[in-house]
Design goal:
The complex is a heterodimer of chains A (about 110) and B (about 110). Chain A is mainly β. In chain A, about 0% of the residues lie in helices and about 55% in strands. The chains are: A mainly beta (about 110), B mainly beta (about 110).
Chain lengths: ~110, ~110
């Protein structure tokens, strides 16, 4: 496998469920990201793991919980979500510290919360 | 003022037309600039980086104006396959300081 792989591609869950999104990068990058993309809005940075240090957006609700066990894998754990959390969740990786911090995105996980 | 601002469009142009998008940014300390392309229901992909001296890649030309804090993307001889949303991205330092614009939607018509 190459690039950035996300699973599942589609997820439908109820508000009381617990699920996880998974991301894996095969690029040797040292930073991984979770972004949220809602219709007609800019990509919203949720979390960054850079050199395995976590940096978070303080506006992200605690019902989203990231986990980065190593530099190649990133998870987003979901629990008691709300319908407004329905969106496309994009994982990305980059070589942080390089002159051009270019992001490579996965294909995304489209989440629907009922 | 938004950190990165783009005209959302939509821009509807005929094949063969020349179209230009602008993007303004508010952080004067911004260091790197990019244009990404996002097709419908797909992930964003890097189209090109934007260099201070301006740069060209085939039909695409990107320019940076630091004094006025804007970047531009010019597409010449538009193709149907250029239809997409074009995202302006500004990097201001650390890994977390990559800011995306809302995107400009382009539709090239036959």
């Amino acid at each position: 496998e190459t690039g950035v792989t996300q699973t599942p591609r589609h997820l439908v869950m109820g508000m009381t469920n617990k699920k996880s999104l998974k991301c894996e990068q095969h690029l040797g990058h040292n930073a991984m990201y979770w972004y949220k993309q809602s219709a007609k809005k800019p990509l919203e940075l949720m979390f960054v793991y850079s050199l395995e240090e976590r940096v978070e957006n303080n506006s992200v609700p605690s019902r989203f919980s990231p986990e980065c066990p190593n530099s190649s894998h990133l998870f987003l754990h979901l629990h008691t979500l709300q319908p407004e959390d329905s969106a496309l969740y994009l994982c990305a990786s980059s070589q942080a510290g390089s002159v051009a911090n270019v992001l490579t995105f996965g294909a995304g996980s489209r989440l629907t919360v009922l | 003022r938004k950190e990165v601002e783009q005209d959302p469009g939509p821009f509807n142009v005929p094949e063969g037309a020349t179209v230009a998008f602008n993007c303004t940014y508010s952080n004067s300390a911004s260091q790197s600039f990019f244009w990404y392309r996002q097709d419908c229901r797909k992930e964003p992909k890097l189209l090109m980086s934007v260099y201070s001296s301006g740069n060209e890649d085939g039909r695409f030309t990107a320019q940076l104006n630091r004094a006025s804090q804007y970047i531009s993307l010019l597409i010449r001889d538009s193709k149907l396959s250029d239809s997409a949303t074009y995202l302006c991205v500004v990097h201001s330092g650390s890994a977390r300081q990559l800011t995306f614009g809302s995107g400009t939607q382009l539709t090239v018509l036959p």
